[in-house]
Amino acid sequence: MTDAHLPRKPRIALMGEFSAGKSTLSNLLLGARPLPEKVTATRLAPVWMSYGHTPAYRVLVDGSTEPVSLDRLESIPVAQTHVIRLFMECDILDLCDLIDFPGISDPNMSSEVWERMLPEVDAVIWCTHATQAWRQSEAAVWAMMPDALRDFSILLITRYDKLISDKDRRRVLQRVRLETDGQFAASFPISLVQALQAGDDYDKWNASGAGPFVTHLIDMIENLTKVAARTDRPLYNIANGTAIPDPVRATIMPRRVQRMHDTPQIRASETDDQVRASS
Fold first, then answer.
1. How far, in Å, CA of 232 to CA of 51, rounded?
2. Which phi and psi (to 5°) does residue 66 adopt?
3. Contact 45, 81 (CB under 8 A)
4. Is 104 exposed, middle or buried (0-12, 13-18, 19+ CB in 10 A)?
5. Nearest partner of 78 among 55, 60, 104, judged by Cα
6. Lesser CB count within 10 Å: N end or C end of the chain?
7. Whether CATH 3.40.50.300 fits 11-277
8. pLDDT tens per residue, range 16-72
9. In what order do the strands lie in the sheet with 97-100?
């Protein structure tokens, strides 16, 4: 979206600790790798992805900009970089912008690198690894988020397939939902790798947990689009108590989402047995 008179698109951050699945989630949503094969997003400053074919550039902490080479992204000094801007022509970016944050717990990276990007955010998809889900360090970071942003955000319990037994799956899901009650709009267990491998197999897509998650994500984007149309301020900057608008059905959806949009949605309030059956 390049016309300054048009409403801005919602800005959704991909966040979580190191190795929680953010890069795999980005690949799933975009339908392609946004970065070259050898480049690791976790070692970069936040990467802001938008629709288009503008050459990549970085915004320095002083507000100036300079072009960057995709093959040399990892040589960019993180401490001096506010954000890296990438542009792609893909379905999800026609609906919203995605901002891929580095891992919040990386001991080799100052938290200032990602904290200074938070004021740009409307909502978060937070990835937490199922085998060590919702650590205290994650809860501490999430506690700083304003309610207006939480009202739209999603918690993904990733690598859910790594929990072998049904008992373990029920236990982790119950604990995480109890500890995060009221802090996210919804939470979903998911295997991102299985979702990527599903291809056009709808049964495998739904079994991975991606079906209900993507259905909810589209509803969230629809609501955020209405909010973005009436304010230039991202929700991180809006005072608590911002009213949530009524859903407005989007007219453009990614092809995968169009195919899956009519499938039954699993709500966050459904029983553990129902959720387990979809994972």
1. 18
2. -155, 145
3. yes
4. buried
5. 60
6. N
7. yes
8. 998 899 989 999 999 988 877 556 655 789 999 999 999 999 999 999 999 999 888
9. 65-67, 57-60, 81-88, 47-51, 97-100, 11-16, 123-129, 154-158, 186-189
DSSP string across 210-255: HHHHHHHHHHHHHHHHHHHHH-SS-GGGSPTTPPPPPP---S---H
273, two tokens:
């047995």
Pairwise CA distance, residues 134 & 258, whole Å: 32
pLDDT (tens digit per residue) in 189-205: 999 999 999 989 999 99
Cβ atoms of 99 and 46 within 8 Å: the answer is yes
Q: Name the residue among 208, 190, 186, 188 with its Cα closest to residue 199.
A: 208
Contacting residues for 89 by C-beta, under 8 A, at least 6 apart: 51, 52, 53
- Whether residue 145 contacts residue 263, with contact meaning beta carbons closer than 8 Å, is answered with no
Q: Who has greater pLDDT, 181 or 267?
A: 181
User: How many residues appear in the chain?
Assistant: 279
Kindly write down the DSSP assignment for every residue of 83-118, as one continuous string.
Answer: EEEEEE--TGGGT-EEEEPPPTT-TTS-THHHHTTG
pTM summary value: 0.83
Instruction: Give the C-alpha distances (Å, rounded to integers) separating 90 from 87, 95, 179, 215.
Output: 9, 9, 36, 18
